[in-house]
Amino acid sequence: MAVQGKVDMLSILRDELAYEGGAASHVFVVLGASGDLAKKKIYPTLWWLFRDGLLPPKTYFIGYSRSKLTVDDIKKKTLPFMKVKNGEEQKVEQFFKINEYIAGSYDSPGDFSKLNKAIEQKGSCNRLFYLALPPTVYESVTLNLKATCMSKSDKWTRVIVEKPFGKDLESSNRLSNHLSALFKEEELYRIDHYLGKEMVQNLMVLRFANRIFSPVWNRDGIASVVISFKEPFGTQGRGGYFDDFGIIRDVMQNHLMQILTLVAMEKPPTTNAEDIRNEKVKVLKSIQPVDIKDTVLGQYVGKPGGKGDEAQGYLDDPTVPKGSVTPTFATAVLSVKMRDGMVYLLYLDVEKATLNERKAEVRIQFKDVAGDIFPDGRSDELYEAWRIFTPLLNKIETEKPKPITYVYGSRRPKESDEFMADRDFKYTGTYRWTESKETKAGL
């Protein structure tokens, strides 16, 4: 089963729980509980659901990862991201009382037996496993879940798989086949948490329920589209993980491609998830694999005289392999030919350690005025997205081109602007860099 993001996924699960009338216990297991995704996204979301009374009775949470932690450690890590309001302190304590933590490896049946025992102590229960993990451990984790931790016959099991789905087309296909062999389709949720963002969810409304934009969203109206993702910070000690994936795998092939399909797809017959997915796949099928000559790759270096993190380049991170050529910046241009003959020029732009703000945006450049069923899940969508980027990734890893350097906190490599200008994108806005309080303080 494929869904549009975390919000839709939780809505579906809530409906299932409500249907059962709250008779059973429900155990939500966060695999990878010590990671960034868990502390910044998953635990805060679970807290908000608990705070707002959107969870059924007898719901419990279990964190699982290799780190030797306690529930109190999880609480300290997560609190800065939970947006706790005044007067909610007691409710926070109640939330963490229904939490538990177990340390264990991802390839040990014995450790998963400990996890299963902890789940069974909650009584007869439905089980939901959230894989907030790198794809390198998906196979071993799901094998152990299937062998050891499945619900009894009268209760359900759900497995939520987070992006990235593999490292390339081959590994994505292997993972899809692996999961399909272990679980029924209705037991699987493949999600990209980025799709839960309000901006992304509103794209369809903007396009198809807006009398201003709908008539001009065509080959006669649009010259090009730029989809950008910018982060003002570097790897922050996570370079070892990031270096295995790079900015293209980490953001461009999944997050930005999801936005691209919503921008470029034809109007679906209905808002049914199957109809939307079909139109998204049509867009992906119309895109040729990215050629390295149609890209600009960069890697940030420390800012001379900078303070704090801005003084450190990517290669200064002790967790990054020496001499790594993994890009932290990438601009790519894609050509999308639609059914009516319209050709979009779509620029995907991902930047780490640039500017002093964090943002994602879609910039539509209009032309100057002259005198629309997924029974097999989201696998084929994954296939098409990986098909587009795998040749580029293989070329980068084979030839290891040296990325263009750009200073931490700067706007972006000038080569990227020249690259886009040569392909008819004209930036007519103004740009003014304002030093933030954090930058002044060296944070």
| Distance from first to last alpha carbon | 42 Å
Mean pLDDT: 80
Strand content: 15-25%
Count of distinct strands? 12
Keywords: Carbohydrate metabolism, Glucose metabolism, NADP, Oxidoreductase
GO biological process, one term: glucose metabolic process
Domain Glucose-6-phosphate dehydrogenase C-terminal: 204-374, 378-427
GO cellular component, one term: cytosol
Which terms summarize this structure?
disordered N terminus, single chain, six-stranded mixed beta sheet, alpha/beta, 19% strand, disordered C terminus
Could you characterize the architecture of this molecule?
The chain is α/β, with parallel strands linked by helices and 443 residues long. It contains 14 helices and twelve strands. α5 (109-120) crosses α6 (138-148) and α6 (138-148) packs parallel to α7 (169-182). It is globular. The two termini are 42 Å apart.
Summary, kept brief:
By secondary structure, the chain is of the alpha/beta class. Helix content is 37%, strand content 19%. It holds the Pfam family G6PD_N.
Give the arrangement of secondary structure elements.
Blueprint: H1 6-19, E1 25-31, H2 36-51, E2 59-65, H3 71-78, H4 89-97, E3 99-103, H5 109-120, E4 125-131, H6 138-148, E5 157-162, H7 169-182, E6 188-191, H8 198-201, H9 203-208, E7 222-231, H10 239-264, H11 273-285, E8 295-301, E9 329-337, E10 343-352, E11 359-366, H12 379-399, E12 404-407, H13 414-421, H14 437-440
